[in-house]
């Protein structure tokens, strides 16, 4: 079937330029995804979100095409290190390096149409334009699947220009509570469990952090603890040496990039222990106005770190900037001493060596709210430019309006906001059911 080209109303965008939209989507015969394929995917998802019920999604993206895309992307992601090294000046040609830039994007939470606008506004990835997405692609919004698949398509198209980090919502527990699992089951029906399992497997491959141009650290939640490692007393010889982990070193100390590189990121949910503590911290931690490092009791997982820890981390690794995400307007209204998320970003710590920034790219969030009064926050993305890449340029944008009509895939009236007071027992149960 062919859908004729037309400009969508309501502030959307047609990404197919002058070409007709081609549906159902098919996998390229040579297995190579190009820009036209990505643009058509975006146009089809944009149109289907407005014209088709969710249950018709397989007529747009058949399961075999989904499988090919996720398998191809997963193979790329699983080969990447926990902490990516992104060096635009060395990865680009000499001519492109001088004009190279890195676009950093925060939480998206299934807000498809805002992602489409962001890509229109920032431009597509190219030889001299890199993208780093900072996690939380799914949950709460009605189009988490489309959002995630567009990013996977971009990754397959330009694997060395598009980098996808993991957020705390790329997990079995969060997706079972905040809507993504139900969204997938609704859209794919009897094939939904298969599609959901493939998504979880892809989540396991998402890297945890990045270092941009040797100056900027990005991660979804932020900093992480050191996990002490000592040889077991029963071990003899190098070959049979086993490591035992002190999961709660006292006092808590900041971890190193070397420790981050050795963490086991394939664990989707708790139990967080040993080296698994580091991914838990990277995905769930928050900054604090108080100095020091302490357990994040509000979330029940991860850490709180103060400005002194930001300074220590920046100075120790010769960095200038930390960009993290993880907190939208609902979380920030409960955090006295920190700025709100009205503009899509906040500068949380300013220290001698540099700054800590929280970046949130989902405007008018969350999509579904139980109260008449909405936050009406803007979204934002950051552009880092050559030669130093450590002077962030903030680009803010309003939500696309009106959004297409959609139903929530979770009980947003009863489900807690901002991932606080998590039911860790349920999280552990979810993890055991997966393994």
Automatic annotation (TrEMBL):
It catalyses: O-phospho-L-threonyl-[protein] + H2O = L-threonyl-[protein] + phosphate. SUPFAM superfamilies: Metallo-dependent phosphatases. Belongs to the PPP phosphatase family. This is Serine/threonine-protein phosphatase. PROSITE patterns: SER_THR_PHOSPHATASE. SMART domains: PP2Ac (SM00156). GO terms for cellular component: cytosol; nucleus. CDD domains: MPP_PP7. Keywords: Hydrolase, Manganese, Metal-binding. Its cofactor is Mn(2+). GO terms for molecular function: metal ion binding; protein serine/threonine phosphatase activity. Its EC number is 3.1.3.16.
